[in-house]
């Protein structure tokens, strides 16, 4: 077996999606499995992708009035119990600390499954008057949810990285605007940075975040026809404010209860990104998040080596100076073919090949990672040309993800049609729904699909007059899908 074969992906995306995904994550150097089930180790190249997502989102948060803070990893049990829905919602998944050193603790501490219960008391302390509102905090951290499912890097891990935003507002309108602002920023992250179109909607009542008034979501369709909940933004109403006494004195000197929100996006976004764009050659990353945007591969023989390496180094230096994340692969013990495969596996969006012809003509040859398209261009104004090619790569990735989503939303009018359509095609099935959770059960039981969202607008007329399952009057349109 040659080195090349050792490196490559051996399973197929279309036929063995699970194995293929695990291989891409590991061979693309995104993550490894930790010794404890349910945990992963994020490698530097994986963490670099996370940092790009973080930088974009963090920038938009700060432009829109959010400040970062940090709260403890542990939450006293009595705090967690203050909001009963949170306890009921998360209790089976909470990891508990019972000992500090050899001493048994007087009160158990929960490893945060989410931080409403530790942040809300401080929102209460820091909110005195209407002038303190809105109060917008965010933290970048990890949380732990002890789910007994198979580990799937970035999709299903007991500990995961995320951001959680928590805000308090004087009234419903301000809190609702906040909820939608964050949802729009999640959509923007997917569409403008990750080259993925998403659908925006609301979770059905029975699948809301514990204690929330409304849970809004961005959903992304994976190539295997399953939906991923890509980020959620919750309008919490006054339930948390009542449980934690977040009150303020309004303009008329009256005490009022605040309205709160919370919103989170986790590294599941990375999982969705990897799943969406990567292929049987390995990882594919959009330029905005790739650790290296461009790799320069010199092609030389013994007598051209010195000149070509110099020409290549100049190119890399010029791009680096222009702010492009560029890597010159000048490994002498590897041939160009090996290098091509290696960087394709690692998802570098754009390759620049430099051989004797390119050097003689003052040119470079570009190769686009997603489809292998090869174009020779002048070496003049290289940073601008590279920019154009990176944009072209982004457009190709977006178009392909859009094609996956388009045509994957189908209507159904009966239980049999829902089951048949989802069974055959996957994707989303749009139906009339009475609003009763019981009507989701037969679909869930039969093929493990569920209602992943309903339209954001509560007043929107359902597409069908009748619930596809029970035949009663439809209250809204439901989108059924299998999900991660
Ligand atoms: Zn029904």
TrEMBL record:
<keyword id="KW-0067">ATP-binding</keyword>
<dbReference type="InterPro" id="IPR004499">
    <property type="entry name" value="Pro-tRNA-ligase_IIa_arc-type"/>
</dbReference>
<dbReference type="InterPro" id="IPR002314">
    <property type="entry name" value="aa-tRNA-synt_IIb"/>
</dbReference>
<dbReference type="GO" id="GO:0005524">
    <property type="term" value="F:ATP binding"/>
</dbReference>
<dbReference type="InterPro" id="IPR045864">
    <property type="entry name" value="aa-tRNA-synth_II/BPL/LPL"/>
</dbReference>
<dbReference type="GO" id="GO:0006433">
    <property type="term" value="P:prolyl-tRNA aminoacylation"/>
</dbReference>
<dbReference type="InterPro" id="IPR016061">
    <property type="entry name" value="Pro-tRNA_ligase_II_C"/>
</dbReference>
<keyword id="KW-0030">Aminoacyl-tRNA synthetase</keyword>
<dbReference type="GO" id="GO:0017101">
    <property type="term" value="C:aminoacyl-tRNA synthetase multienzyme complex"/>
</dbReference>
<dbReference type="InterPro" id="IPR004154">
    <property type="entry name" value="Anticodon-bd"/>
</dbReference>
<comment type="subunit">
    <text>Homodimer.</text>
</comment>
<comment type="function">
    <text>Catalyzes the attachment of proline to tRNA(Pro) in a two-step reaction: proline is first activated by ATP to form Pro-AMP and then transferred to the acceptor end of tRNA(Pro).</text>
</comment>
<dbReference type="InterPro" id="IPR002316">
    <property type="entry name" value="Pro-tRNA-ligase_IIa"/>
</dbReference>
<dbReference type="GO" id="GO:0004827">
    <property type="term" value="F:proline-tRNA ligase activity"/>
</dbReference>
<dbReference type="Pfam" id="PF00587">
    <property type="entry name" value="tRNA-synt_2b"/>
</dbReference>
<keyword id="KW-0963">Cytoplasm</keyword>
<dbReference type="Pfam" id="PF03129">
    <property type="entry name" value="HGTP_anticodon"/>
</dbReference>
<dbReference type="InterPro" id="IPR036621">
    <property type="entry name" value="Anticodon-bd_dom_sf"/>
</dbReference>
<dbReference type="GO" id="GO:0005737">
    <property type="term" value="C:cytoplasm"/>
</dbReference>
<dbReference type="Pfam" id="PF09180">
    <property type="entry name" value="ProRS-C_1"/>
</dbReference>
<protein>
    <recommendedName>
        <fullName>Proline--tRNA ligase</fullName>
        <ecNumber>6.1.1.15</ecNumber>
    </recommendedName>
</protein>
<comment type="similarity">
    <text>Belongs to the class-II aminoacyl-tRNA synthetase family. ProS type 3 subfamily.</text>
</comment>
<keyword id="KW-0547">Nucleotide-binding</keyword>
<dbReference type="InterPro" id="IPR033721">
    <property type="entry name" value="ProRS_core_arch_euk"/>
</dbReference>
<keyword id="KW-0648">Protein biosynthesis</keyword>
<dbReference type="InterPro" id="IPR006195">
    <property type="entry name" value="aa-tRNA-synth_II"/>
</dbReference>
<feature type="domain" description="Aminoacyl-transfer RNA synthetases class-II family profile">
    <location>
        <begin position="46"/>
        <end position="286"/>
    </location>
</feature>
<dbReference type="InterPro" id="IPR017449">
    <property type="entry name" value="Pro-tRNA_synth_II"/>
</dbReference>
<keyword id="KW-0436">Ligase</keyword>
């Amino acid at each position: 077996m040659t080195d090349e074969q050792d490196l490559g992906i051996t399973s197929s995306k279309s036929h063995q999606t699970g194995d293929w995904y695990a291989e891409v994550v590991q061979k693309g150097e995104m993550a490894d499995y930790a010794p404890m089930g349910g945990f992963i180790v994020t490698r530097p190249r994986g963490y670099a992708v996370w940092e790009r997502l973080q930088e974009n989102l963090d920038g938009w948060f700060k432009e829109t009035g959010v400040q970062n803070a940090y709260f403890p990893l542990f939450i006293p049990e009595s705090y967690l119990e203050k909001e009963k829905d949170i306890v009921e919602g998360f209790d089976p998944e909470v990891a508990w600390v019972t000992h500090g050193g050899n001493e048994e603790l007087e009160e158990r501490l929960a490893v945060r499954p989410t931080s409403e219960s530790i942040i809300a008391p401080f929102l209460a302390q820091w909110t005195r008057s209407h002038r303190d509102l809105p109060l917008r905090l965010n933290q970048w951290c990890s949380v732990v949810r002890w789910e007994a499912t198979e580990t799937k890097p970035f999709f299903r891990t007991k500990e995961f990285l995320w951001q959680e935003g928590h805000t308090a507002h004087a009234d419903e309108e301000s809190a609702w605007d906040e909820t939608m602002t964050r949802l729009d920023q999640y959509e923007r992250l997917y569409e403008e940075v990750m080259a993925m179109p998403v659908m925006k909607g609301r979770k059905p009542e029975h699948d809301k975040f514990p204690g929330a008034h409304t849970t809004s979501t961005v959903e992304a369709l994976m190539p295997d026809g399953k939906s991923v909940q890509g980020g959620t933004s919750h309008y919490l109403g006054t339930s948390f404010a009542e449980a934690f006494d977040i009150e303020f004195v309004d303009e008329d000197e009256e005490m009022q209860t605040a309205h709160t929100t919370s919103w989170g996006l986790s590294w599941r976004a990375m999982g969705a990104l990897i799943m969406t764009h990567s292929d049987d050659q390995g990882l594919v990353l959009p330029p905005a998040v790739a650790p290296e945007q461009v790799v320069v591969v010199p092609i030389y023989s013994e007598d051209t080596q010195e000149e070509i390496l110099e020409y290549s180094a100049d190119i890399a230096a010029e791009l680096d100076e222009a702010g492009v994340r560029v890597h010159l692969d000048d490994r002498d013990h590897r041939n160009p073919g090996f290098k091509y495969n290696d960087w394709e596996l690692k998802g570098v969006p754009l390759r620049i090949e430099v051989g004797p012809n390119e050097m003689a003509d003052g040119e470079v040859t570009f190769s686009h990672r997603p489809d292998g398209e090869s174009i020779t261009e002048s070496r003049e104004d290289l940073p601008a040309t590279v920019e154009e090619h990176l944009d072209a790569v982004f457009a190709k990735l977006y178009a392909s993800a859009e094609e996956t989503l388009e045509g994957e939303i189908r209507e159904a009018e009966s239980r049999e049609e829902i089951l048949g359509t989802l069974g055959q095609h996957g994707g989303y099935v749009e139906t009339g729904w009475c609003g009763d959770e019981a009507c989701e059960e037969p679909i869930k039981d039969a093929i493990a699909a569920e209602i992943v969202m309903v339209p954001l607008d509560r007043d929107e007329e359902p597409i069908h007059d009748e619930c596809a399952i029970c035949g009663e009057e439809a209250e809204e349109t439901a989108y059924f899908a299998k999900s991660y």
